[in-house]
Amino acid sequence: MQPRGQEAAMADIRHAEATGRDRPERRTALFEPVACVPLDRPVSLIETGRLMRENPMSILPEALFRETILTGPYIGKSVHEISGPAEMRSVLQENFHAWRKSPLILRMLRPILGDAILTAHGESWRRQRMSLQPAFLRRRIERFIPIMDEVAAATVERLARAPQPVEVQSVLNDATFSVIEQVLFSDAVEFDRAGVRAAIEVILEETGTMRMSDLVPMPEWMPRIMSLRALRARHVFRKAALAQIRRRRAQGDPGDDLLGLLLKMRDEKTGQKLSDTDIRDTVMTFIAAGHETTAIALTWTLYLVANDGETQERLRAEADGVLDGALTPEAMARLSFTRQVIEEAMRLYPPAPILGRRAVEPTEICGRPVKKGDVVLLAFYALHRHRTLWEHPDHFDPDRFGPDRRPQDRYQFMAFGGGPRACIGASFAMMEAAIFLARFVSRLSFTPVEEADVYPVMQVTLRPRGGMPLRIARR
Ligand code: HEM
């Protein structure tokens, strides 16, 4: 375990002095994991483009970790970078109607996801959200616990048997893909799992890579040009999904899984069922939004746990107590420290570290005027490590999410976004991540690879550059 730096200790003392509070009895040595190097100088638009292509995280200015809003010019308009809870609430909740998702994101995602919930707007989005929301209620998703647990157990075996060290990110990606695929198509027949999986990887990879031309403002209705490879992959995915949808319709019983729910869903206004195309795009949306994010959250969690023996032991003690019998929803509720660890991992490495929105009408952010066409970058990464909001912000301290210390402001921890468009799958993801982490630590032990050069890069999600090698042994 890495010793806690003197600078962090000083920061604690300054914080305690500033807040007038005595520091409660806490652990004295906290692990300080790798952090993105912030930008400490002004850069030209061309250089911004270069940095964005390499790693969009490197455009976050150092000042954003101390200030809560910074405004700069952007091709005749302004770009506002925000990192404070009040600013987040203003954009995502209070002035929700003045903002739309950034045209770039829509141009990148629409060719893949169509007009499904993640990319839809206005009335179309509202109706989809209303209809889909019940499918993600806790009591509905609890029926997926056995699928998640089975995949977790298989993943334990895979991790234990793999040659050491293990690159865990790809293993976890396979695992979360397997969960979402089974939750959607529990009874799939003639479904080329490997082929569909490979196609989705191609599509997501192409969608997630920034191009220089992406910096040129374009209308959102103009889709980004897709490569032939990605077009072919899209065809493979669509054909496979449609075959499953049609097979289900033909057999007369929609089924009890997520696909069954989509097949039964009716538009609240027209009473009409969803079309095959709508269902296909929603299926793709759940796969795109739901598997890599969860895998990334778990990847960073394991990195942190591998580097913090004390936390690993506490997790293990909790898991051993809970996993004794069947994994019921009641047993799940007792995995509270496990959840704290996952939340703290997502604070340090939010899987979606920056979101963009564009103003569709004049508005304001906490008193700062915003013109129509201005862009806002919601820097969750900077919010989560903000110097004025968190004690020792760059250190791993799962107890900060304990019942007595959790942030009081809902907009201080934004891993799942906020406002009406917050993540619909948050409970699903937390349930899945908690089952995986508990199963992992109860059967396996994790240690870091000393020579590994771990660094976070943003490629839609915040991934470790070159993967995450860890040493894993059976207990
Ligand atoms: C740790 C895992 C996850 C993280 C960190 C995450 C994060 C997010 C964030 C930040 C947003 C807001 C995007 C925005 O406002 O522009 C979002 C939206 C969304 N997420 Fe998740 N997500 C996760 C897992 C899931 C899962 C498992 C599913 C589905 C099975 C899912 C489905 C969605 C959908 C459909 C939306 C769009 C909601 C809307 O626009 O109304 N996510 N997610």
From TrEMBL:
InterPro entries: Cyt_P450 (IPR001128), Cyt_P450_CS (IPR017972), Cyt_P450_E_grp-I (IPR002401), Cyt_P450_sf (IPR036396), Cytochrome_P450_Monoox (IPR050196). Residues 12-27 have a biased composition (Basic and acidic residues). Heme binds at residue 423. Residues 1-27 are annotated as: Disordered. PROSITE patterns: CYTOCHROME_P450. Keywords: Heme, Iron, Metal-binding, Monooxygenase, Oxidoreductase. It comes from the Bacteria. Belongs to the cytochrome P450 family. This is Cytochrome P450.
